[in-house]
Amino acid sequence: MNDTKSGDDKTLSVTPKKTLTLKRPGTEQGTVRQSFSHGRTKAVVVETKKRKFSLPGDKPEPAAAPSVFTPKAPVAAAPVVQEAPKAPPPLPPVERGGMVLNELSRNEMEARRRALEGSKVRDVEDRQRAIDEAKRRAEDEERRRREREESARRQAEEEARLQAEAESRRRAEEEARRRAPLAAELATVDDEDVKPKRTGAGAPVRRPVTPEVARPAKPTKGEEDRRRGKLTLNAALSDEDARARSLSSMRRRQEKFKRALHNEPREKVMREVILPETITIQELAQRMSERAVDVVKFFMKQGQILKPGDVIDADTAELVATEFGHTVRRVAESDIEEGLFNIADRPEDLEPRPPVVTIMGHVDHGKTSLLDAIRNANVVSGEAGGITQHIGAYQVEKNGHKITFIDTPGHAAFTAMRARGAQATDIAILVVAADDSVMPQTIESISHAKAAGVPIIVAINKIDKHDADPQKVRSELLRHEVFVESMGGEVLDVEVSATKGTNLDKLLETILLQAEILDLKANPDRTAEGVVIEAQLDKGRGPVATVLVQTGTLMPGDILVAGNEWGRVRALVNDRGGQIKEAPPAMPVEVLGLQGTPQAGDRFAVVNNEARAREITEYRQRLAREKAVAKHAGQRGSLEQMMSQLQTSGLKEFPLVIKGDVQGSIEAISAALDKLGTDEVRARIVHAGAGGITESDVSLAETSGAAIIGFNVRANVQARAAAAAAGIEIRYYSIIYNLVDDVKAALSGLLSPERRETFIGNAEILEIFDITKVGKIAGCRVTEGKVERGAGVRLIRDNVVIHEGTLKTLKRFKDEVAEVPGGQECGMAFQNYEDMRVGDVIECFRVEMVTRTL
Ligand SMILES: Nc1nc2c(ncn2[C@@H]2O[C@H](COP(=O)(O)OP(=O)(O)OP(=O)(O)O)[C@@H](O)[C@H]2O)c(=O)[nH]1
Q1: Region 328-347: what's the mean pLDDT?
Q2: Does the keyword Protein biosynthesis apply (predicted)?
Q3: N or C: less crowded end of the chain, CB within 10 Å?
Q4: Atom 13 in ligand 1: which residue has the minimum CA distance?
């Protein structure tokens, strides 16, 4: 198919069948010849409709001048305009079906053509002008629009800049306000830390790469605005925080920032760590400038799970501190007690004082008898009262000189006092029965006296007895380095009889002689100091302590600190039960008015006022509590424990809190319980003291998992309630024997039962039968004892135990039997084991678990 288009038939066309007509405006007509097969063709009239184009602002075109140009290409239309006059299109050939001109005269045709062309040119020129005008207007409009946009953008930018400037000014002001006081402070302390870095000061100063690292993240502008607009609780608090930031916090921040800048690791500071007797892990970490978590980790490595709040003893703390590379200085926190004891006296103030004597010796050698005999024969004359009272000590008078006897026989009391740092005794009387001579406790007594540096006087007792052999005593004492005078030594000895009262005076004289040698002196004109001999809770009188004044004079009204307790002396009662106005050195006296019951062996001192008394006792009570807790926790945390943990892991303990009516009974109980202990189990006395059971005892028992034992004392209401709440058992006793028996039973319960094995018999395997579905069965003969079903069996090959287990079957012929006696044959099969061989021996045994007792 091909297209042909006539170019000159645009305005005027004459079709063969139609008359001359003007073409519809906006349409373009042409003919297209279509070719078909077999040489056929067909002319088709094609009318192209022109779209009318108008620009905004254009005047509507008059209908009479329709546009013949396509508006899309006004420029392209121009050549058409140019071409039109000089190249008039040739007349189209007359074809069948094509367009032909009407028959007009040539002149007319020419004139019409010119007229048409002239009008065409004008039309084109007008159109061109209109188009140019429209273009210009559009361009103007476009330029103005651009200008408007540009100015709007500039204005927006300017506004943004101004806003940013205002914002940064505001921030700078705020920062300056915040830093002003700090800068002032730091300027006086350490300007290096605070001053901004100056360049050109010798050392090159690196600019902070990312200053934001050290600064808290600033909120974005939007957030800031929002926050500023609305005051929330958070905002208010955070502002408060910023204001309340401490100087050291700022300094830490500064240092952290510096480190971050220089990429420096934290400098390890070696410190001298001051260690009190007990310390919490947290406190220790602080003193070492370490993190508590690191200390806890250290303990974990040692197999100890401890919390930062846990208390450890000084030994453990020292180990930790040294591990962390610090040095340690151990201090006693007893500075608070400074000046309480051992106030030096001027020599001219000292006056002779009576000796204090303790009687020691083996059981039944007559200590009590001797004390009683001396007491009854030599009461201090001229004193009030007269009814002998056992207050723990008494005084006798001989030749105008007084002698104080401590009325607690035996070395246990003596050592208990020494254990608390009190040395009450000046002279030890070693009682040795002349008929029994030196016995184990005699030797122990000698050791204790020697360790305390106390001179001994040997009282050879029971000389009235027919089998008495004083000389044997003397010579046996030689072996224990006690050289009596008659044997060439310096130790004084007296032969006495307590029951007959023989030589008691001589004994007293010897004591005085020894005292003279010792030249015992004290200053009576000062505040009293001494030691508690016995203390108890008296039903009517409250806490009562028998004290021995060692120096100074004790008077009613004095404020006394004794151990963990204090009190104002309400009354002083002597060993005859009479109230006295003063107690000079070496006088034993009962003190009434204490707030609590101190312990035997506690030292006492008179202080100036109640405040000081309270301060000291509060400190001591706290110390005692901490020690008790540390002792408990320290069972895990103490140095020795940490090292020998594995060795002692098998030991079972029965922790106890013991409260008794008097110190003596508590010590007796403690000693008895101590004796019960074995390598496997033992009673651990967490705390023992005189007095009723209180809430603090319950809490101590709770922390240490202990049971509470009350010996002749009861728990108060609060303690009972606390114990009930904590599920702690309180047991009351009035007989030591019962108490010890119960503890023994409890300890026995802690002993793991013993596995006892009994041999029953042996059987030799003669043949092995492999039975389908049943497995291997050993045909045996019982060679020794018997074999039992259900008993334990061992398979022994060449005297080596191959297998140990139980029997699956025990058959005699075809029957299952309970036992097979010696000499008979039987079939045996092991449970889950089949590797049996001819010649093996099956050993049969019974296992019993036997409960053990102490
Ligand atoms: N013949 C005689 N018997 C005495 C003498 N002294 C004590 N006894 C007797 O010895 C026994 C024990 O006397 P204690 O005074 O109880 O002895 P102890 O050393 O106090 O005994 P413990 O308190 O158990 O350590 C009593 O039966 C006394 O009567 C003495 O000088 N001569």
Answers
A1: 72
A2: yes
A3: N
A4: 366
Q: Do the beta carbons of residue 405 and residue 391 sit within 8 Å? A: no
- Determine the 3-state secondary structure of 456 from DSSP: strand
Q: Where are the alpha helices (DSSP H) in 302-410?
A: 314-323, 367-377
Same-domain pairing of 392 and 501: yes
731 and 782 inside one domain: no
Q: What is the pLDDT of residues 338-386, one digit of tens each?
A: 667 767 778 888 899 999 998 888 888 988 889 888 887 765 544 434 4
- Of the residues 705, 728, 750, the one at which a domain ends: 750
In a domain, 609, yes or no: yes
> Vertex 567, ends 565 and 570: CA angle to 5°?
145
How many other CB atoms are found less than 10 A from the CB of residue 476?
17
Which 3-state string (H, E, C) describes 641-686?
Answer: HHHCHHHHCCCEEEEEEEEECEHHHHHHHHHHHHHHCCCCEEEEEE
* Rounded CA separation 520/411 (Å): 22
The tally of CA atoms less than 13 A away on the side-chain side of residue 423 is 12
Ligand 1 atom with least separation from CA of 497: 31
CA of 370 to the centre of ligand 1 (A): 8
Residue 676 Cα to ligand 1 middle (Å) = 27
Mutate to test the pocket of ligand 1, among 360, 368, 460, 496 (most ligand atoms within 8 A of CB): 368
Residue 215 has pLDDT above 50, yes or no: no
Ligand 1 neighbourhood includes 411 CB (under 6 angstroms): no
Backbone angles phi, psi at 533, to 5 degrees: -95, -40
Is the shortest distance between the CB of 445 and ligand 1 below 6 Å? no
Tell which wins on pLDDT, 51 or 696: 696
Do 758 and 746 lie in a common domain? no
486/570 same-domain check: no
Is 369's C-beta closer than 6 angstroms to any atom of ligand 1? yes
306: left (phi over 0), alpha (psi -120 to 50) or beta: beta
Residue 800 has pLDDT above 60, yes or no: yes
User: Bigger pLDDT: 560 or 747?
Assistant: 560
Q: Is 372 in the pocket of ligand 1 (CB under 6 A)?
A: no
CB of residue 409 inside a 6 A radius of ligand 1: yes
Query: Which atom, in ligand 1's list, is nearest to the CA of 461?
Result: 31
Asked whether residue 731 falls in the same domain as residue 803, the answer is no
Question: Which residue, of 705, 735, 750, is where some domain finishes?
Answer: 750
Domain count across the chain? 5
Determine, yes or no, domain membership for 621: yes
Q: Which residues are annotated as a binding site for GTP?
A: 361-368, 407-411, 461-464
Same domain membership, residue 694 and residue 708: yes
292 assigned to some structural domain:
yes
The neighbouring-strand residues paired with 655 are: 684
**CATH assignment of the domain containing 389:** 3.40.50.300
Cβ of 402 below 6 Å from ligand 1: no
Contacts of 558 (CB under 8 A, 6+ apart): 527, 528, 568, 569, 606
Identify the pLDDT of residue 91. Answer: 46
Q: 433 C-alpha vs ligand 1 centroid, how far in Å?
A: 9
| Pairing status of strand 529-538 against strand 841-850 | unpaired
554 found inside a domain: yes
What domain range is 827 assigned to? 754-850
Q: Are 301 and 369 contained in the same domain?
A: no
Mutate to test the pocket of ligand 1, among 363, 364, 390 (most ligand atoms within 8 A of CB): 364
Q: Which residue, 808, 815, 804, is CA-closest to 842? A: 804
CATH number at residue 561: 2.40.30.10
The interface predicted TM-score of the complex, written ipTM, equals 0.97
CA distances from 808 to 606, 727, 777, 837 (A): 82, 48, 10, 17
Residue 441: CB within 6 Å of ligand 1? Answer: no
CATH of the domain at 659: 3.40.50.10050
Same domain, 738 and 778: no
